[in-house]
UniProtKB/TrEMBL annotation:
<dbReference type="InterPro" id="IPR000644">
    <property type="entry name" value="CBS_dom"/>
</dbReference>
<keyword id="KW-0129">CBS domain</keyword>
<dbReference type="InterPro" id="IPR051257">
    <property type="entry name" value="Diverse_CBS-Domain"/>
</dbReference>
<feature type="domain" description="CBS">
    <location>
        <begin position="86"/>
        <end position="139"/>
    </location>
</feature>
<feature type="domain" description="CBS">
    <location>
        <begin position="11"/>
        <end position="67"/>
    </location>
</feature>
<dbReference type="Pfam" id="PF00571">
    <property type="entry name" value="CBS"/>
</dbReference>
<protein>
    <submittedName>
        <fullName>CBS domain-containing protein</fullName>
    </submittedName>
</protein>
<dbReference type="InterPro" id="IPR046342">
    <property type="entry name" value="CBS_dom_sf"/>
</dbReference>
């Protein structure tokens, strides 16, 4: 196993993002279409939060909706904004931070994704799934 591998080698670079003005129906549609579980939220090109699919499940019955149904009509989504539901206290990492450093952060916190930010710009996202896939490649 390479000791000083940067997180940039395993992160997702083409990050799906939401704007703070998007609605939760749009968010759910992206989660399902892209088959992802975490979406950074941006405002004026700066990351201001992270929305997870679990955040949506906490406020709705989204998991009861057919996975193939892209036209979700959930009244609960109209009661909240993305900014009200997203995680606001973000921990970020840099693209040159090591995979080990990122793994230590994820192991000690209660979240499963970290935005990767360089010079104030979102350049990627790394998840626990990325780490597991990296470890599996080592065997």
């Amino acid at each position: 196993m390479k000791k000083r591998m940067p997180v940039s080698s395993i992160m997702t670079k083409n990050v799906v993002t939401l704007n703070s003005t998007d609605d939760l129906t749009t968010a759910e549609r992206l989660f399902k279409q892209k088959k992802i579980r975490h979406i950074p939220v941006v405002k004026d090109n700066k990351i201001i939060g992270m929305l997870s699919y679990t955040d949506l499940l906490r406020i709705s019955f989204a998991d009861a909706v057919d996975d193939d149904d892209n036209e979700v009509e959930t009244m609960v989504y109209n009661m909240f904004t993305i900014e009200q539901v997203m995680a606001k206290k973000l921990v970020t990492v840099g693209a040159s931070d090591t995979i080990k450093e990122v793994a230590e952060i994820l192991a000690s916190k209660e979240f499963h994704a970290l935005p990767v930010v360089d010079n104030g710009k979102l350049v990627g996202i790394v998840t626990t799934t990325d780490l597991i896939n990296y470890l599996l490649e080592q065997f």
